């Protein structure tokens, strides 16, 4: 018998031009709602378009058998620039997991990423997954995550977000993180009773 | 309230000189001030890029980077929302509160114009005055890129 249906909200955030929209576009099974406009000023030299409000995509994990649960992931992507930080504050409400995207080949953004990460997680008690874009090496991804101030139990995934297969690896880690958090919740509930 | 479609020569308003018209064409703040002056009830106007950078604002408004970003986010979402009614090109967003209006106009695809107005303001008049200046504002936004 099907034990149920679960919907999880994922916040996809990180600095400007990290690959947040690419991640959602790579893995969403529904047409992605994007709010991209032409980039202006010096940011135009980095990329042509930028998200100004949010991205939205979905991912569903179909049950393997009758005893399995149906899992829906709702992905909410934020803009990257400091001036849009209020959108992150809006979108982070009731999230179940945070995916923080950083461009592994843009070390100039790491310091800002570090403070962004600290800020976004400061009032959240949910699992965190770090996706290090444009990176092939696990050790390097781990080093970047550590530089961002993430503890060693936070998964750091090297990925190439222009490739959908790479995006699915990030989703797999997100699902594992959700599962572990759910197990932890059940264990602590069991311990309390 | 003055009828803006007719020129009242006794109102004390002087015909703008060619020099001031040319100045207005080039100076975004002058264009925004003229929007404020042209419609009773309008209290401010601000121009920003579509990606949320403040370009210029009328006198009496303060420089506020977060306002530009909020406006850009609003237009970004509204641009998606018009798909619900099969729309392609977003024209304007009207936000109404008991204290007044925030009206945002698309300035091409690269800019956004915000007009702040009191509750009694005639929105049609604002729209007419804005349309008359939209090409100049587009030029300003393009030049600033």
Taken as a percent bin, the fraction of beta residues of chain B is 15-25%
The span between the termini of chain A is 27 Å
Strand order of the largest sheet of chain A: 4-5-1-6-7-8
Distance between the termini of chain B: 39 Å
Helices and strands of chain A: which structural class?
A: alpha/beta
Mean pLDDT of chain A: 92
User: Beta-strand level of the residues of chain A, as a percent range?
Assistant: 15-25%
Helix content of chain A: 25-40%
Major beta-sheet overview of chain A:
6 strands, mixed
- Helix-strand pattern of chain B, N to C? HHEEHEEEH
Oligomeric nature of the chains: heterodimer
Briefly, what CATH class of chain A? Answer: Alpha Beta
Question: Which descriptor suits the 3D outline of chain A?
Answer: globular
Corresponding CATH architecture of chain B: 2-Layer Sandwich
Please mark out the parts of chain B with pLDDT under 50 across 5 or more consecutive residues, or reply none.
Answer: 1-12
Q: Quick check: average pLDDT of chain B?
A: 86
CATH superfamily of chain A: P-loop containing nucleotide triphosphate hydrolases
What would you note in describing this structure?
The complex is a heterodimer of chains A (193) and B (145). Chain A is an alpha/beta fold and 193 residues long. Chain A has 5 helices and 8 strands. In chain A, helix 3 (110-121) links the parallel strand 6 (97-103) and strand 7 (128-133). Chain B has one domain (40-143): Dynein light chain 2a, cytoplasmic (Beta-Lactamase, 2-Layer Sandwich), CATH 3.30.450.30. A 5-stranded antiparallel β-sheet of chain B has the order 2-1-5-4-3, sandwiched between helices. In chain B, a hairpin with a 4-residue loop joins strand 1 (42-49) and strand 2. In chain B, helix 1 (18-26) packs across helix 2 (28-38) and helix 2 packs antiparallel against helix 4. The longest helix of chain B is centred in the last third of the chain and has 21 residues, at 123-143. Chain B is globular. The A-B interface holds A 33-41, 43-44, 50-54, 79, 81, 83-84, 86-87 and B 49-53, 65-66, 68-70, 72-77, 79-80, 109-110, 144-145.
């Amino acid at each position: 018998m099907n034990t149920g249906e679960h919907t999880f909200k994922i916040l996809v955030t990180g600095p400007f031009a990290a690959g947040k929209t690419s991640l959602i576009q790579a893995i969403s099974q529904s047409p992605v709602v994007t709010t991209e406009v032409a980039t202006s000023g010096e940011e135009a030299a980095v990329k042509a378009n930028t998200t100004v409000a949010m991205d939205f995509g979905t991912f569903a994990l179909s049950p393997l058998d009758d005893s399995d649960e149906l899992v829906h992931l709702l992905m909410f992507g934020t803009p990257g620039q400091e001036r849009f930080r209020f959108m992150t504050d809006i979108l982070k409400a009731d999230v179940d997991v945070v995916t923080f995207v950083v461009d592994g080949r843009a070390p100039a953004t790491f310091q800002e990423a570090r403070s962004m990460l600290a800020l976004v997680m400061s009032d959240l008690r949910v699992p965190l997954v770090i996706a290090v874009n444009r990176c092939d090496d696990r050790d390097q991804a781990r080093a970047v995550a550590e530089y961002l101030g993430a503890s060693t139990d936070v998964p750091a995934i090297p990925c190439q977000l222009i490739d959908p297969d790479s995006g699915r690896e990030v989703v797999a880690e997100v699902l594992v993180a959700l599962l572990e958090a759910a197990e932890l919740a059940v264990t602590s509930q069991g311990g309390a009773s | 309230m003055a009828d803006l479609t007719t020129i009242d020569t006794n109102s004390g308003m002087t015909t703008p000189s060619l020099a001031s018209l040319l100045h207005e064409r080039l100076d975004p703040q002058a264009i925004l001030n003229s929007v404020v002056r042209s419609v009773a009830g309008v209290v401010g106007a601000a121009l920003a890029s579509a990606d949320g950078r403040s370009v210029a604002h009328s006198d009496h408004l303060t420089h506020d980077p977060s306002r530009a970003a909020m406006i850009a986010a609003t237009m970004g979402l509204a641009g998606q929302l018009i798909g619900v009614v099969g729309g392609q090109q977003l024209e304007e967003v009207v936000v109404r509160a008991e204290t007044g209006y925030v009206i945002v106009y698309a300035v091409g695809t690269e800019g956004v114009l915000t007009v702040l107005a009191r509750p009694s303001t005639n929105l049609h008049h604002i729209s007419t005055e804005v349309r008359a200046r939209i090409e100049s504002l587009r030029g300003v936004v393009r030049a600033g890129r």
